[in-house]
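Before relying on records like the one below, remember that each one covers exactly one chain. Contacts with other chains, cofactors or solvent are not represented anywhere in the record.
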Amino acid sequence: MDYMISIILIALGAAIINNVILHFFVGICPFIGVSRRVDVAFGMGCAVTFVITIAAMLCWFFTFYILRTGAPLTTWAASFFMDKAAASQLDLSILSYIVYIFVIASSVQFVEMYVRKFFPPLYKAFGVYLPLITTNCCILFACLNIMANISGVDNPAEVWDLGKAIVYAFFAGIGFTVAIVIMAGIREELELCDVPKCLQGPGITLLVAGILSLAFMGFTGVDKGLEKVLRGNSDKQTQQIEQPAADKAVVAMNG
């Protein structure tokens, strides 16, 4: 039950409360550049969600088995050249940026080939912004955040497993999609408004992004309240399960 509660909190936090765009302001380039139409924005959100999920899954494997201190594959390979105690202390996290960028670039190339083959109109609508997913900060940000929850945690019980990493990355992509679609809907309405000339274009877009960010700040603390409710219900269910067992034990002893 605790694991499911953690999954729910990670998903809610990544999608809404700690939205990669409206909370951390990363991935702004496509957020501004591809948010003029809702359908294109939705396509970009789906592409980013796919890439960020695949990249996070691959990065988790690289981090857990190779890059972190005490990684099994690194320890095994290094034990041929040094004693096991020294091999278990090897830390290759300095290579994380190179590995993550390689993984993200490969994932983007795969998505680009797929979209160009099966969705030519969507590929033309993306334009230069589809290859630019390679340099989308939110994907690298998600991978680095996953690494921080694997190699930067003192308590082994709190280390993220593959399931938590995938859930975090997928819902971070969902949060990106929600933010960019909302922005696209607002920008479509703004085309019908009389926006002052000095604010037209990126100016009014950044102002709307700031207002959206303030609106999403209203979700701050929701995860704490939800965690309290979920863990409270979990404790009650545990007590209800344990109480009949304790009553039966007392009856058996008296009998």
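The CA atoms of residues 36 and 184 lie 5 Å apart.
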